[in-house]
């Protein structure tokens, strides 16, 4: 037998197989080569191949953008041999999108994170921002204020916050044109790839608009070939991740008694003899509450409110084309129904793109994204009322009817929130319609010289209305109210781009890009309100049938226009693909700055060295090594228009029956407002080991921002009540980012076990280095030289003042009241920092934390086995201080005892509790209560777990499909290591700054965070 | 060749796009007004309207109420009142919000007034006479804002001119300088303002010479008790106030015969009123729940401040007539029992306080029933198991004198002698009640009377006493006291004599006449009686009040925001 095998040698086996990507979609054009021979073939359009090779050969399958695989063939014919190739995220010949063009990854000189379609697909999220979380180093995506209502977009910070006021939102560019809509106006199923530009060299080309980083979104376009029809869908349920821990009936009854016993005095004499004083059973408790105590009632109000939500998504697309015409059409529908009644979000989207070649010179393309979204209940948040509702009373009367009134025993402050859910009583609706259309004309003038005209127009209309009946928690039995807001925004961009590409003497390559662009945005917005609407069913639709018409909020009534004009030139030069250089210069003019300061020029330079291409470099395991360095500057003027001019605000007065509208100065003018200017230095190293089975990059950066656009609070005595917008100060940011991709176990084929990991870790440190006029400490504005923007400045907690002789004397020594209703005993104790035997705000507050985390990171693990794939996305945020008004300063943790409170082991004269203060009916908020709101911000979150299965080809063939994948995904299923959640009863530690204070992460009291479980299917024909 | 044309057309097309775009960078706002508007005819008028509107943030707003009414000998904290300010305990600090609100609002509208005074020269299209009058109005208002500041904080920053380039440094100017500026403003205003509120063409709420004189007299009287006092202050106060009193007939002013009419709803433009701060019945600019400052203005919520929790008593529900129970304060026992002890000849107790509530709950279920056995002394007709009283009957009554426990137990309704007053229920000050607002939870639509002639008499009387004009002091005081006898009291019995006069007497008399009228805390500080009287009469605050409390703390927000130049000094002891 041995002889035969050896002797014949040519005893071939026939291998028929097919190659797919991780989604089970066929890959055509994959090279299939028998190792050590010249025998080879490529896969066809359907991904199949056939090859005859000697027994026990090894097949090498390779394809650009995928990790090559070697597969051993046995000694038998194979007729249905499935092989799956894994995408290579750091493949150097991969082409990625950069500003105004594309580059081969090996030619890139800047810091760019490229996120593939696959990564986006792994998480069936409501919008693109959610899908990007934890996917790239330096990209910090957080829920705004912990808000997880349907239709909410998270906030995105790239490399920390630099600007304070001019916004930290990155520029979103879709198919080359700046996009001003919300990420909710985009269907992530239409996205082919996302590139995030981080350093100055990469973003310089976007000039001022790119100061906070740039997110380049490329949408799917048609491909040459047989039309492909794909259908993707998923559906599932959404649940609240828990309930806020408030007291139950008996706990609350006792708490209320303590509040009265501790707080009601005549002079220094307490009214009650102690917690057992029989009068306490009557004085603080309403008749209904007393009955509740007798009957042992304990109402869980939250249970009556939350309900399971749902989530649905459908996407149908057709792409195809010939060599001269390519097209792509897709339609999508998404709907999420929240856990709080009346909250939902719905999106319809249609996208069309067409690319047409005319002869050899012209190419024309058009891409149109159209969405219509409806958001219900976006600001519905009676949680402060729901959580405060007395658990001793029932929302229903003895007949089971809803008591649509104040909850008894809550000082007529808390309305029965279940009244909000009666049909038609609470309506809040936002409808957005938008179209974003881009058009280009490519002109191929000479070889290498191209002109491109790129135009984009965005028109977005946003109509908002709300109505609350009289008997809702909003109006608390007063009159019904309604509000109408409308907003129409038009935005257009025109760009002229000239590019020139050439090579000289073989090894010198040059690429020039020149740009002129103009952008204008106009927004008009209106707002009016009504009260006492004639009939509830009229809602907000008829302002005439209402008692009173009220002008709306001045912040919502405006017309604004701004313009930006830019010139840009960029030269890329490379020698032998080893040495790469990029020079960019951009000049921006902004209408929003003061005359004389409107224009600013930003240069930048970057270089890269492909070390692995050097002849001298021959370190075996290293298959890729590239060093990059860039230095450059960008500006920021992303402020509201007209800030240089000052403002008079309206105020109404009347002389008897004569009503007048007066105006008074509220904002001071600033005739020297100029660009905020950031210079940054970036050093990067890209590497690949073991045929890129280990690959990644390390970035080091430092950024210097000066002329920071800051809104400065002035002393009230200046007479200007609103802060003034100024260029002051300097900040610095530095950081390290590591991105690592490893193929831990590469499976032989789809039946073997496979494991790949993506890991990213990023550390950012920001600090203020200078403020105006040599000031080092600006408490009113929370700015401190040497500290990051977004610190917390407050007293230092030092436990609770105990009812001991020592503490009493000590408190007295500090001038604190130790007797009567205002006694500090049992209250939060703070440190006398300067030791002057006095507690005062000027001397005894300090920086007690910062919202800046120590580090953040994300990890994605993908496993595959026999058609199954499992991916787990984890996100960690470690360190930093979290501020939560739920616990500190909000309505739900006042310790007043008038309303229900967060469950807390509060101080009593006998328990010596040293964290939570005493209940005290005398104070509407426990003194120093804000100090209960600071927590360690560390948490680790499983962002998603997704299990998929690619149906066997046999099944797929039967229905003449190309691939079918089914999957189940749990999103946000687990929060780990969060002391805020585990120890202090918070629900979700994920917070981000609001628009007014972007850098200070604060959690408020809101409808609870959610997790979801969905089941989905991807089919393509 | 074709390529050349393509190139040329491309260049031409691109050039056309670029041309003429720079004009696009000029800002031309279309929906906002900028400070330049102030020097136009229209802008000047609208600026003055805004300067008036600023007064609403004080008279009618909760902020001024909180720091002038409670924490005094007259009123202590109701259960839902501000415990920091009333108790003077150590939780009352420079960060107490109500303090900074008053500070900020005063400076904001001082700057508005400064803008008017400074810009007047640039405004055309208004006659010189009109312009001078408008500048006088601005000065009157500015003087009021500064007067508010000095009485709370003593030395304050004195901005005499419009602050167009805002600064992060500030200093506290000497009290004497600020007083000088106030007096100068008022004197200049008197010269150009129309004589009085009844003069022809004067709209309700407008500044007049009479109002400026009243304030000027009060300023002299207050300065006299301050560290910036000038020897002639009591004289000046007497002369200015007396001058106003003597010209009352020609101005159409005079005390109303009946004290109760002064506060009657709808009678806010009566002959006794010298200056009022207007509030509106126009619902577009009123309520609901605007207890703070909205985008348009601040509402008058004084109607809610005193209302007790009557609605928690059997037979009672919340009503527009009885008001919304904010219960921010309740009278001290000294005020009701001692200060208002005389209730036969002096009718003001009955006309200032509500002491009886009639059952208004249409639902018969909530009414209390007689239980077995009937209490001794139960009224005739009391039947076990039957309701004690019915809709429309007395539900709560405060006789103002003590009753035995047996009498209380035998009463049909809630009988509440003084010893049972508490922080949820007691005699209720009714001067600001408003039954005509749109909804029971809505704020008041009534103007707030800031200055009235009865106070002018008391200022003149006190100034006369302090400057040794005893007979004048007696005569002026008796004018006010005699009116209080109307209609049933013995007028002569109301008269006092020189022997009765003292600083304490004037404070007592002011309490009887002006109780609750947003001036008490200032009066106690002015006479240096705050500590003494709070310790005597306000049991909750008594153990805590300290010498530092005669000034309000400089708001921490002010201290924090002064980041250049020397630090902004805090008041002593804070």
Task: List the SSEs and their pairings.
The complex is a heterodimer of chains A (1021) and B (574).
Chain A: H1 2-8, E1 12-20, E2 31-34, E3 40-42, E4 48-54, E5 58-62, E6 69-72, E7 78-84, E8 95-98, E9 101-104, E10 112-116, H2 117-122, H3 128-132, E11 139-142, E12 155-158, E13 171-174, E14 177-179, E15 191-197, H4 200-203, E16 214-219, E17 225-240, H5 249-263, E18 265-266, E19 269-270, H6 280-283, H7 287-295, H8 301-305, E20 309-321, E21 325-337, E22 344-358, E23 362-376, H9 383-388, E24 426-446, E25 449-468, E26 481-504, E27 508-533, E28 546-551, E29 558-575, E30 579-590, E31 599-610, E32 622-636, E33 647-655, E34 658-667, E35 676-689, E36 694-706, E37 709-712, E38 724-727, E39 730-745, E40 754-770, E41 777-778, E42 783-784, E43 791-795, E44 797-800, H10 805-813, E45 828-830, E46 845-850, E47 855-865, E48 868-878, E49 881-884, E50 934-936, E51 939-950, H11 953-958, E52 963-976, H12 979-982, E53 1002-1003, E54 1010-1020
Parallel strand pairs in A: 1-7, 13-16, 49-53
Antiparallel strand pairs in A: 1-4, 2-3, 2-5, 5-6, 8-9, 10-15, 11-12, 13-14, 15-16, 17-20, 17-54, 18-19, 20-21, 21-22, 22-23, 23-24, 24-25, 25-26, 26-27, 27-28, 27-29, 29-30, 30-31, 31-32, 32-35, 33-34, 35-36, 36-39, 37-38, 39-40, 40-47, 41-42, 43-46, 44-45, 47-48, 48-51, 49-50, 51-52, 52-54
Chain B: H1 2-18, H2 41-53, H3 62-68, E1 75-77, H4 83-87, H5 97-119, H6 128-153, H7 175-192, H8 209-224, H9 233-246, H10 248-251, H11 259-262, E2 273-277, H12 302-305, E3 329-331, H13 333-339, H14 348-352, E4 353-354, E5 356-358, E6 394-397, H15 405-410, E7 414-415, E8 428-429, E9 448-452, H16 453-466, H17 470-483, H18 491-494, H19 503-514, H20 520-526, H21 530-537, H22 556-561
Parallel strand pairs in B: 6-7
Antiparallel strand pairs in B: 1-3, 2-9, 4-8, 5-6
Helix pairs in contact in B: 2-5, 2-6, 3-5, 5-6, 6-7, 6-8, 7-8, 8-9, 8-16, 9-16, 16-17, 16-19
């Amino acid at each position: 037998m041995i002889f035969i095998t050896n002797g014949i040698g040519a005893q071939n086996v026939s291998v028929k197989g097919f190659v797919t990507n991780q989604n089970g979609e066929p890959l055509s054009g994959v090279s299939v080569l028998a190792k050590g021979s010249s025998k080879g073939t490529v896969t066809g359009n359907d991904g199949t191949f056939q090859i005859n090779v000697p027994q026990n050969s090894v097949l090498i399958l390779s394809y650009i953008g995928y990790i090559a695989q070697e597969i051993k063939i046995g000694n038998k014919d194979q007729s249905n041999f499935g092989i799956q190739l894994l995408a290579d995220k750091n493949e150097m010949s991969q082409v990625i999108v950069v500003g105004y063009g594309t580059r081969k990854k090996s030619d890139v000189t800047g810091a760019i994170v490229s996120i593939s379609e696959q990564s986006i697909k792994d998480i069936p999220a409501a919008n693109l921002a959610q899908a990007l979380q934890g996917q790239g180093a330096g990209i910090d995506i957080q829920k705004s204020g912990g808000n997880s209502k349907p239709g909410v977009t998270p906030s995105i910070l790239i490399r920390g916050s630099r600007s304070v006021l001019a916004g930290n939102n990155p520029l979103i560019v879709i198919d080359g044109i700046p996009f001003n809509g919300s990420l909710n106006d985009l269907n992530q199923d239409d996205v082919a790839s996302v590139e995030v530009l981080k350093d100055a060299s990469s973003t310089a080309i976007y000039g001022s608009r790119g100061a906070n980083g740039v997110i380049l979104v490329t949408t799917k376009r048609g491909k040459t070939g047989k039309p492909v029809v794909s259908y993707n869908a998923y559906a599932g349920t959404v649940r609240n991740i828990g309930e806020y821990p408030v007291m139950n009936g008996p706990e609350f009854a006792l708490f209320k008694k303590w509040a009265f016993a501790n707080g009601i005095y005549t002079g220094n004499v307490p009214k009650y003899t102690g917690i057992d004083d029989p009068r306490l059973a009557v004085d603080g408790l309403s008749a209904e509450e007393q009955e509740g105590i007798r009957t042992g009632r304990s109402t869980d109000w939250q249970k009556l409110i939350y309900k399971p939500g749902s989530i649905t998504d459908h996407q149908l697309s057709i792409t195809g084309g010939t060599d001269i015409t390519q097209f792509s059409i897709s339609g999508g529908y998404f709907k999420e129904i929240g856990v709080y009644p009346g909250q939902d979000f719905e999106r319809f989207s249609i996208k069309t793109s067409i690319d047409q070649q005319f002869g050899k010179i012209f190419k024309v393309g058009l891409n149109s994204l159209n969405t219509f979204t409806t958001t219900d209940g976006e600001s519905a948040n009676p949680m402060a009322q729901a959580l405060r509702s007395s658990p001793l009373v029932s929302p229903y009367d003895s007949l089971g009817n809803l008591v649509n009134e104040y909850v008894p025993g809550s000082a007529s402050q808390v309305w029965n929130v279940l009244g909000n859910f009666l049909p038609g009583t609470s309506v809040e609706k936002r409808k957005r319609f938008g179209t974003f259309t881009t058009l280009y004309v490519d002109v191929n003038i000479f070889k290498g010289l191209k002109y491109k005209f790129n135009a984009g127009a965005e028109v977005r209309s946003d109509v908002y209305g709300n109505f609350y009946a009289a008997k809702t928690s909003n109006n608390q039995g007063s009159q019904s109210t309604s509000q109408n807001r409308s907003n129409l925004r038009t935005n257009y961009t025109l760009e002229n781009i000239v590019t020139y590409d050439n090579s000289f003497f073989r090894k010198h390559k040059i690429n020039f890009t020149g740009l002129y662009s103009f952008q204008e945005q106009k927004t008009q917005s209106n707002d009016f309100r009504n009260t006492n609407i004639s009939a509830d069913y009229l809602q907000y639709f008829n302002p005439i049938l209402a008692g009173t018409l009220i002008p709306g909020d001045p912040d919502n009534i405006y017309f604004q226009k701004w313009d930006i004009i830019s010139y840009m030139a960029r030269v890329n030069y490379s020698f032998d693909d080893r040495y790469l250089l990029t020079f960019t210069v951009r000049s921006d003019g902004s209408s929003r700055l003061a005359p004389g300061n409107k224009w600013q020029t930003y240069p930048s330079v970057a270089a890269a060295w492909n070390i692995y291409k050097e002849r001298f470099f021959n370190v075996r395991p290293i298959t890729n090594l590239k060093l990059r360095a860039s230095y450059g500057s960008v500006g920021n003027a992303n402020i509201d228009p007209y800030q240089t001019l000052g403002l008079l605000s309206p105020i109404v007065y009347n002389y008897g029956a004569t009503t007048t509208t007066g105006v008074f100065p509220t904002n001071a003018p600033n005739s020297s407002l100029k660009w905020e200017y950031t210079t940054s230095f970036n050093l990067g190293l890209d590497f690949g080991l073991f045929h890129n089975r280990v690959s990644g990059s390390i970035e080091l950066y430092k950024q210097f921002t000066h002329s920071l656009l800051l809104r400065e609070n002035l002393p009230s005595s200046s007479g200007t009540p609103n802060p003034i917008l100024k260029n002051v100060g300097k900040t610095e940011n530095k950081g390290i980012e590591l991105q690592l991709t490893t193929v831990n176990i590469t499976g032989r084929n789809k039946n073997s076990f496979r494991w790949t990991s993506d890991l990213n870790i990023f550390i950012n440190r920001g600090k203020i280095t200078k403020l105006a006029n040599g000031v080092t400490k600006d408490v009113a504005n929370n700015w401190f030289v040497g500290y990051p923007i977004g610190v917390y400045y407050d007293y230092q907690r030092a436990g609770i003042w105990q009812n001991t002789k020592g503490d009493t004397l000590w408190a007295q020594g500090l001038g604190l009241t130790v007797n009567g209703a205002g006694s500090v005993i049992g209250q939060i104790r703070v440190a006398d920092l300067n030791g002057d035997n006095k507690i005062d705000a000027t001397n005894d507050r300090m920086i007690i934390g910062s919202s800046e985390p120590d580090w953040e990171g994300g990890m994605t693990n993908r496993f595959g086995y026999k058609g199954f794939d499992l991916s787990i996305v984890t996100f960690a945020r470690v360190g930093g201080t979290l501020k939560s008004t739920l616990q500190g300063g909000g309505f739900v943790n006042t310790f007043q005892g008038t309303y229900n409170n967060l469950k807390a082991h509060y101080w009593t004269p006998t328990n010596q509790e040293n964290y939570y203060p005493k209940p005290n009916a005398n104070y509407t908020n426990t003194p120093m209560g804000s100090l209960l709101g600071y927590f360690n911000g560390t948490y680790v979150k499983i962002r998603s777990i997704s299990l998929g299965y690619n149906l066997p080809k046999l099944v797929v063939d039967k229905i003449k499909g190309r691939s079918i994948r089914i999957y189940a995904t749990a999103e946000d299923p687990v929060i780990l290591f969060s002391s805020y959640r585990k120890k202090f009863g918070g629900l979700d530690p994920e917070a981000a700054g609001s628009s007014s204070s972007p850098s200070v992460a604060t959690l408020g009291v809101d409808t609870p965070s959610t997790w979801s479980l969905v089941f989905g299917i991807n089919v393509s024909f | 060749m074709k390529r050349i044309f393509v190139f040329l057309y491309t260049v031409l097309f691109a050039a056309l796009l670029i041309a003429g775009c720079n004009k696009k960078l000029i800002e031309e706002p279309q929906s906002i007004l900028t400070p330049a508007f102030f020097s136009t005819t229209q802008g000047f008028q609208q600026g003055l309207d805004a300067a008036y509107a600023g007064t609403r943030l004080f008279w009618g707003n909760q902020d001024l109420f909180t720091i002038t009414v409670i924490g005094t000998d007259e009123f202590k904290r109701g259960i839902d009142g501000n415990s920091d300010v009333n108790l003077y305990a150590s939780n009352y600090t420079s960060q107490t919000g109500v303090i900074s609100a008053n500070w900020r609002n005063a400076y904001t509208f001082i700057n508005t007034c400064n803008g008017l005074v400074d810009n007047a020269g640039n405004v055309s299209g208004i006659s010189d006479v009109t312009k001078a009058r408008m500048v006088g109005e601005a000065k009157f208002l500015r003087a009021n804002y500064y007067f508010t500041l000095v009485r709370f904080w003593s030395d304050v920053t004195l901005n005499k001119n419009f602050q167009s380039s805002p600064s992060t440094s500030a200093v506290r100017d000497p009290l004497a300088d600020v007083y000088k500026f106030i007096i100068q403003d008022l004197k200049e205003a008197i010269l150009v303002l129309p004589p009085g509120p009844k003069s022809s063409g004067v709209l309700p709420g407008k500044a007049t010479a009479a109002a400026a004189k009243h304030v000027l007299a009060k300023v002299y009287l207050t300065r006299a008790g301050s560290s910036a006092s000038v020897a002639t202050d009591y004289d000046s106060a007497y002369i200015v106030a007396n001058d106003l009193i003597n010209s009352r007939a020609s101005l159409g002013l005079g005390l109303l015969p009946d004290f109760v009419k002064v506060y009657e709803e709808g009678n806010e433009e009566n002959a006794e009123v010298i200056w009022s701060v207007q509030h509106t019945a126009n619902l577009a600019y009123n309520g609901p729940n605007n207890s703070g400052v909205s985008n348009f203005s601040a509402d008058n919520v004084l109607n809610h401040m005193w209302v007790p929790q009557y609605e928690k008593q059997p037979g009672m529900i919340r009503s527009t007539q009885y008001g919304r129970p904010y219960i921010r304060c309740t009278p001290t026992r000294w005020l009701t029992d001692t200060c208002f002890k005389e209730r036969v000849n002096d009718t003001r107790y009955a006309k200032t306080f509500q002491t009886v509530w009639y059952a208004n709950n249409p639902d018969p279920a909530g009414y209390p029933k007689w239980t077995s056995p009937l209490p001794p002394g139960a009224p005739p007709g009391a039947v076990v198991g039957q309701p004690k009283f019915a809709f429309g009957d007395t539900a709560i009554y405060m006789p103002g004198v003590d009753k035995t426990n047996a009498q209380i137990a035998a009463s049909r309704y809630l009988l509440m002698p003084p010893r049972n007053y508490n922080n949820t229920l007691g005699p209720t000050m009714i001067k600001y009640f408003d039954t005509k607002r749109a909804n029971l939870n809505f704020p008041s639509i009534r103007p707030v009377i800031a200055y009235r002639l009865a106070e002018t008499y008391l200022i003149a009387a006190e100034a006369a006493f302090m400057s040794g004009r005893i007979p004048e002091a007696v005569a002026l005081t008796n004018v006010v006291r005699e009116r209080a006898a109307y209609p049933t009291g013995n007028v002569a019995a109301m008269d006092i004599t020189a022997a009765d006069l003292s600083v304490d007497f004037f404070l007592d008399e002011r309490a009887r006449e002006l109780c609750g009228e947003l001036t008490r805390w200032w009066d106690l500080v002015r006479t240096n009686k705050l500590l003494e009287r709070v310790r005597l009469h306000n049991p909750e605050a008594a153990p805590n009040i300290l010498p530092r409390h005669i000034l309000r703390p400089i708001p921490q927000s002010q201290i924090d925001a002064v980041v250049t130049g020397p630090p902004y000094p805090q008041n002593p002891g804070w």
